Amino acid sequence: MIKNYFKIAWRNLWKNKVSSVINIVGLAIGMAACIVILLFVSYEKSFDRFHGDNIVRLNEVQKFPGMAASQKVGLSMYPMATALKADFPEVKSYTRVKWDRKYQMTYNERRVFVPQVLAVDSTFLDIFNFKVIKGNAKDAIEKPNSIAITQETAEKLFGKEDPIGKVINHFGGDTLKFTVTAVMANSPKNSQLQFDALYSLTSIHQKWMDRWGGNWLNTYLKMAPGTDLKAFEAKMPAFVKKHMKPEQATYYKLFYLPLKDVHAGSTDIGLDYLNFQKFDQKSTNLFAIIAFIVLVIACVNFMNLSTARSADRAKEVGIRKSIGANRPQLAFQFLGETILLSLLALVLALALVEITLPYVNNLSLRDISLPVFTQPSFLLVVLLSTIGVGIISGIYPALFLSSFQPVKVLKGSVDTGKNKGTFRNVLVVGQFTSAVFLMIATVFVVKQLKFMQEKDPGFTREQVVTVPMDKISGQKYPLFKQQLLGNTLIAGVTASQDQLGSHLDQSGAIFQYKNDPVRELGVTQLIVDNDYMRLYNIKIIEGKDFSKDKSGNGREYIINESMAHELLRDHPKAAISTLIGQRFGFDSLGVITGIAKNFNFNSLHYKVENLLIANQSDWGLTTASIKIKPGKSKEAVEFIKATWKNINPDYPFEYQFLDDHFAEVYRADNQVSKIVGILASLAILISCLGLFGLASFSAEKRVKEIGVRKVLGASVKNIVLLLSGHFIKLVLISNLIAWPLAWYVMNHWLQDFAYRININWGTFVFVALVSVFIALVTISFQSIKAAIANPVKSLRSE
After folding, report:
1. Residue 660: what are its φ and ψ, rounded to 5°?
2. pLDDT, position 690
3. Looking at the predicted structure, is the pLDDT value of residue 774 above 60?
4. What is the pLDDT of residue 552?
5. Which structural domain range is residue 483 located in?
6. Residues 653 and 603 in one domain
7. Statement: residue 483 has pLDDT above 90
8. Region label for 342, one of left (φ > 0), alpha (ψ between -120 and 50) or beta (otherwise)
9. How do residues 189-213 score in pLDDT, each as one tens digit?
């Protein structure tokens, strides 16, 4: 019997080629979208899952005087960990992590620069499950001047030599010698902690590190099983008051994130330097929801086409029932056909996934693969899910078809029309409502991203090349600058301690307005040389730029408008020009020489913060900014590289255009917009496939009516409008339902941006016109084909 069912199912699929292809392709696209997104979600969920349980990261909420709003940061203070373990039995262990980027290592004559080295406590490998290949990694993180390197670093430094026991040198801000005691496996890609080597914090320990108040590392705690983090956090205000000065304790609040939540749950946390490929969990969930909607739309197509063609199989049902078949048997047969169709769609879906994964990996910067053969459990889940999709798609058509009464069917009086037509209309409206909603969402996401990328930030970022420097190469910056300026390809050179577009550091400042009491404030700082304002064309609205002859003494400060209004908080009627010459600064008081117009030195996700700019270049500059002449980019970069190699022959040359840096700042937003756009396109495509199938069926069923109308004088235009009007009406209804839903969701989404576009109704009208046009193009082929057909052929049998 099963074999017979299979033959019948195959014959029906082959007989109704158009609807079968539509269903298979639609289901395959829906399944492929779901599989790709679920692979992405699974990859994101896998971050740090290979470590043990009960690991948390310590974070701070900082609110210093003068700051417009509090900020969350992933950094913490060095002495916090030991104090937490001493004060609370819930803390079983801890490890602190300090990072060094572009770390130089030398062995004999071979010098390499590795991306990131971590200085850690001796408990690091007790808390984290990173694999040791050979040697004793515990020695590396317990003993001073010992180091554990990854397999990749070992190959760079030693080639095929055994690295254990070898001595390597580091020459940076300080000179250190390390003995290699272990080789570790490369850090997994799904780990927020990426490193090329580990060494002990005791190798660099200095007394200043024990002071409270400085935030410069990450702290991870191993908690006792069953610890209530909320209850633990409630004890933190008393803890901070106990260990910090009373006036400082009010500036900090402590909170904790489980390690497994840090990767995807810390997008609102700044200074989060050790969080590889950080991605917002809300975006991941959004992708999953949209992919599910796409699959549902594909399932709706099947139900629509199956019920629409119910009359074609009515006699088959009647004959089978008249010779003894019961309803469960028929329902099982029809469900079997659906499952067969779903399995065929799965084969096509897996092929589509394999084809599209390279593009997805390139877009997301992930390394996702299709684990069909490497993980049998994955294949089992996909097969069971496919059978489930087949059952869900076919359960209603199976019950509907198996319900026909044989007497009515064989007399030709079965009713397959009005009520079922209403149900099909509801499904079509549901399909296009989802598709239109996704179209509107895509348009607003793209417009917001374009707005952020094109909005004038208040400074020039075109034709600016940035070159990173460390403590050694930074000492030669004056010579580097001098030689660059001697070439006509270079329009200007400056340097700073931080790069625009990155999260700038905060510091304390002292201010006194006329004879008022001295105030202490928290402020974002930018340390620069004295050509910074000129190169970036940052407008000074009051006062003047830094004086050439005062570079490096730190007694001149430029503040932004936001900072100026904060300083005049107690004098709201005073003009900001009255701040010029007022006492202001870090440890020793200097003066305010200028007030800059507010500019967006950070992502447009955030409002402009209070900012001071100081030409304290002797504090060390880490980023050179070089403005090049337009039209000569290639030649200018080659000249900059040659100049760097001449001055710093032992240091690699790295550069980046500032525009590219800001593209990285908005990379996650760009990824979201592209993925949502792709899923929206798939939803439209699958909906149109269903619409095409229904239009084909409608034209086929009304072929005699069309013939009569043509004989009576109806034009091709009249026939096309007759066949298209019903579907266009459904698309317009879908738009009316989707509009308020899209407005609510997008209005909520835009609240995450400090600077955002307005929601205008023109976009909704535009999407409505596009959706109607797409629907019209989809059904016009069948409508025109039916309208131009020879009526003699359709009426010959009458």
Report:
1. -70, -35
2. 76
3. yes
4. 45
5. 464-665
6. yes
7. yes
8. alpha
9. 999 999 999 999 999 888 889 999 8
Q: Are 94 and 219 in contact (CB under 8 A)?
A: yes
Task: Give the Cα separation of 560 and 584 in Å (integer).
Answer: 13
- Residues 532 and 646: their CA atoms lie apart, in Å, by 24
Q: Could you read off the pLDDT of 22-67 as tens digits, one per residue?
A: 778 888 898 899 899 989 998 999 999 999 899 999 999 998 887 7
pLDDT at 272 over 50: yes
Give the number of domains in the chain: 2
User: Which of 130, 128, 125 has its CA nearest to residue 141?
Assistant: 125
In the block, which residue shows the tokens 């007399």? 411
Task: Please name the residues in contact with 219: beta carbons below 8 A apart, sequence gap of 6 or more.
Answer: 57, 58, 76, 80, 81, 94, 95, 96, 97
Q: How far is CA 555 from the centre of its chain?
A: 42
Beta carbons of 273 and 234 less than 8 angstroms apart: no
Collapse the DSSP code of 62 into the 3-class scheme (helix H, G, I; strand E, B; otherwise coil) and give the result: strand
Going by C-alpha positions, the residue among 568, 588, 590 that lies closest to residue 577 is 568
Compute, in degrees rounded to 10, the torsion defined by CA atoms 185, 187, 193, 199.
Answer: 30
| Position 299 in a domain | yes
Residue 509 sits at the vertex; the CA angle it makes with 545 and 236, to the nearest 5 degrees, is: 145
pLDDT at 639 > cutoff 90: yes
Considering only CA atoms, which of 714, 688, 690 is closest in space to residue 702?
714
Instruction: Check whether residue 397 and residue 500 sit in a common domain.
Output: no
Distance CA 254, CA 72 (A): 9
Helix, strand and coil in the chain, % to nearest 5: 50, 20, 30
Q: Confirm whether 121 is domain-assigned.
A: no
The overall average pLDDT reported for the chain is 85
Q: In what order do the strands lie in the sheet with 464-468?
A: 490-496, 623-628, 464-468, 656-657
In a domain, residue 123? The reply is no
Rounded Cα distance, 129 and 56, in Å: 14
Closest CA to 166 of 130, 141, 201, 140: 140
Task: Indicate the helix (H) or strand (E) that contains 790.
Answer: none
pLDDT of residue 482: 95
Residue type, 491: A
Characterise 321 by phi-psi region: left (phi > 0), alpha (psi -120 to 50), beta (else).
alpha
Last residue of a domain, one of 599, 630, 665: 665
- Beta-strand ranges (E) seen in 661-744 are none
Q: Please compute Rg for the chain using Cα positions.
A: 34
Whether 631 and 589 share a structural domain? yes
Tokens of 185: 């496996």
pLDDT recorded at residue 787: 62
Asked if residue 711 is part of any domain, the answer here is yes
Task: Please list, in sequence order, all residues whose beta carbon lies within 8 angstroms of the beta carbon of residue 501, skipping any fewer than 6 positions away.
Answer: 601, 602, 603, 658, 661, 662, 665
Q: Are residues 469 and 600 in the same domain?
A: yes
User: Does 531 lie in the same domain as 388?
Assistant: no
Shared-domain flag, residues 599 and 736: no
Query: How far apart, in whole angstroms, are the C-alpha atoms of residue 265 and residue 280?
Result: 6
Cα separation, 548 vs 546, whole angstroms: 6
pLDDT digits (tens, 9 = 90+) for 12-28: 666 666 667 777 888 88
Tokens of 463: 């034709």
Domain boundary among 642, 665, 688: 665
- pLDDT for the residue numbered 593: 94
Give kind and range of the element (H or E) at residue 471: helix 471-475
Q: How far apart are CA 536 and CA 171, in angstroms?
A: 33
Question: Is residue 72 exposed (0-12), middle (13-18) or buried (19+ Cβ within 10 Å)?
Answer: middle
Average pLDDT over residues 498-503: 86
Q: For residue 407, what pLDDT is reported?
A: 56
Q: Which DSSP state fits 187?
A: P
Asked if 708 and 648 sit in the same domain, the reply is: no
Are 641 and 724 contained in the same domain?
no
Instruction: Specify the pairing of strand 611-614 against strand 519-527.
Output: parallel
**Mean pLDDT of the 211-237 span:** 95
Looking at the DSSP bridge assignments, the partners of residue 57 are: 220, 257
